């Protein structure tokens, strides 16, 4: 017997056994994952919202999905509506307030939906903004590199890390490096940029091999490498779905890691997570779209802004009443003792400035809010653009623009779409929700405009209307005179 055949049979048997064992293990692992994902999804879907989702509750939770324009909404909308004393204090590793007893009214954070486990759900309204997943991946890639490039002012990576830590500790400020997901993505890109810069310097490379800013490997990580890296697969792709569902690697849920890992391993299981994310959007007060800037801003102002202003009017009345009480106490203290007077004065000094600021906010209209927003967004965009230009100078000739994105091969765009299947579906769903909200807002505006025109036509008639009324009166008078004249003539003939 051929010696080769003698060994071939045992090897074939062993290989078959290994394949059967692996197949069995894969099936068992899939079943385990399927049970874990379905159990989690069922528990989440069973948590129905009983109150009216269209009514703003005591606490507004802005679930800020990265690179959707949420920072603009925070600075140009929410900070115009809410005073700093109404913002909920928090650090980026834990809440710094008791949400069950706190009097704050606004929480803005990159935390995912699992934050709701820390908040009074029955008293909290949630809003968010979604963006086309392909554009969001581009923007996340660009911003990661943009922020990381700021550290290239240092001679080496060690120096940049030490200086960043020193400044954060000294100034006691929240850095981009403290915020999810940038606390993972920026250090990753920072290390990569220093590595590529060191390689260029050591080999004295000055030539640019490509005109495509997304494929200049000597200066920054190429996009094709970025989107296929395990870090991007875990954090960036389908990031909106995982964030709305509450399953990011920053989640407050114990089972989040297992569920997210299972979905990333078995694509078909993602549909259960997608269903949960869709239900979350259904129950939100407002869902905006980055691409429809004008429509989203208008809808936000009328759906959210109008209700915040209404709440401020009510709270302002309460604050004015409080100030009046303190004034009365001040008068009483003045007649009783000098010590009491100083105490009452201190209380009045603390309350009245807040009251004045709240009065100004409560007198704001939706129209004023939109005007303030348009002015603010122009200034903010200019400052953001200048900061990007200054950062990217350090890795010139790399320059990320909308025009530069057209140089990315279509095959890579298709790959991004494939890697973000869940986000693509969620975005389509969000578009339908937004279309309904926006249509209701437009109809409301049209109705208000018609009512206003009708009222104005009665209250303040135009000269054209006055002329028409006078003409009608004259015609009626003429007819009456003519009829009377006919009657007189008929009597004379008789």
From TrEMBL:
It is an enzyme of class 2 (transferase). Keywords: Glycoprotein, Membrane, Signal, Transferase, Transmembrane, Transmembrane helix. One of its GO terms (cellular component) is membrane. Its main location: membrane. It is found in: Membrane. The lineage of its organism: Eukaryota, Viridiplantae, Streptophyta, Embryophyta, Tracheophyta. It comes from Spinacia oleracea. GO terms for molecular function: heparan sulfate 6-sulfotransferase activity. It is a single-pass membrane protein. Gene3D superfamilies: P-loop containing nucleotide triphosphate hydrolases (3.40.50.300). Belongs to the sulfotransferase 1 family. The chain crosses the membrane at residues 466-485. The gene is LOC110776614. Residues 89-147 form the Sulfotransferase domain. Its EC number is 2.8.2.-. One of its GO terms (biological process) is heparan sulfate proteoglycan biosynthetic process. Residues 1-26 form the signal peptide. It holds the Pfam family Sulfotransfer_1. This is Sulfotransferase.
